[in-house]
Amino acid sequence: MSKKVLGRGLSALLTDSGKEINSARDEGAGKILGRTAELDITTISTNPFQPRTQFSDEYLEELATSIRQFGVIQPITVRKAGFNSFQLISGERRFRAAKLAGLTHIPAYVRLADDQQMLEMALIENIQRRDLDPIEVATSFRQLIDQCNLTQEEMSMRVGKKRSTIANYLRLLKLEPVVQAGMRDGILTMGHGRALINVEDPKVQLRIYQMIVSGNLSVRQTEKLVKDYQEGNFDGKKSSATIRVTLPPEIMRATEDLKKYIGSKVDVRINDKGRGSIVIPFKTQEEFLRIKELLSKTE
After folding, report:
1. How many CB atoms lie under 10 A from the CB of residue 196?
2. Euclidean distance between the first and final Cα of the chain, in Å?
């Protein structure tokens, strides 16, 4: 990498191991802060405070394909960690995909940040993503409260969400671990979780969870089971088949064919009047566009 590409400020920064960009007194820092530079990708380490631990290989490969064609459009954000070394603050998905695409350098915005700020920025960026499951959001909220010493009111102002919304997410962390795992896997929605949180008995909560999964129950049906439990009318041995209308054989076969075709979970519900709905969940915009393209194809 030439000095012309690096810029005078960053070039000086990389040749003086005694300077730290984390210090407000760093003379070289002022020349690079607020700017984007092409950094050697091997000089960047991942954020040790990153709350997100799961990155889909499929989606990373899709992004890597895009990067090979168009490059990294939105720079990642880093802080100086030492001589010729940087630490990722945000943009780990782009960083991983860039490495997968074989890039040797990546555009990065360099800024000041201490450990507390790194954690807070990583958590807030995570919360603002649209492909997070409810438990990931709830976990990020909890980390912000516990590790950044924020109140729910302060967090509400920082992430732009109502305090009641934050409280509803945090309550999900009281669910049994198996139920939380079901929400992470997309088996349950937040609506299911909010209904189940009202069941304090762990055994009953797990039993209703099993009934939801085996019977493919809607949120409304789940709420009905919880209400029955609260009123003392819950029969934990009741077959889920009696709670929902069983799908006709031809619809069940068509549902399985659709699942195989699009490679995704398909939720088909039908009421006793023959009316129903088809729900195809997705976690990212890329997955939505992939499904849309498949459904748009005609023979």
Report:
1. 26
2. 51
**Is the separation of the CB atoms in 122 and 89 below 8 Å?**
yes
Q: Which CATH number fits domain 3-114: 3.30.300.20, 3.90.1530.30, 3.40.50.280, 3.10.20.740?
A: 3.90.1530.30
| Residue count of the chain | 299
Provide the residue type at 213 as one letter: V
Distance CA 161, CA 29 (A): 34
pLDDT for position 294? 84
Grouping H, G, I as helix, E, B as strand and the rest as coil, residue 92 is: helix
* pLDDT tens-digit series, residues 143-191: 778 877 878 888 888 777 888 988 999 999 999 999 998 888 888 999 9
Q: What are the backbone dihedrals phi and psi of residue 183, each rounded to the nearest 5 degrees, phi first?
A: -70, -40
Residues 6+ apart with CB under 8 A from 295: 262
Interval 86-107 mean pLDDT: 90
Q: How far apart are CA 93 and CA 28, in angstroms?
A: 29
75: DSSP letter:
-
Whole-prediction pTM: 0.51
The residues that are catalytic are 92
Whole-number Å distance between alpha carbons of 66 and 91: 16
Instruction: Report the alpha-carbon distance of residue 123 to residue 158 in Å, rounded.
Output: 11
Please compute the mean of the pLDDT values over residues 235-249 and round it to a whole number.
55
Radius of gyration of the chain (CA): 24
pLDDT of residue 25: 42
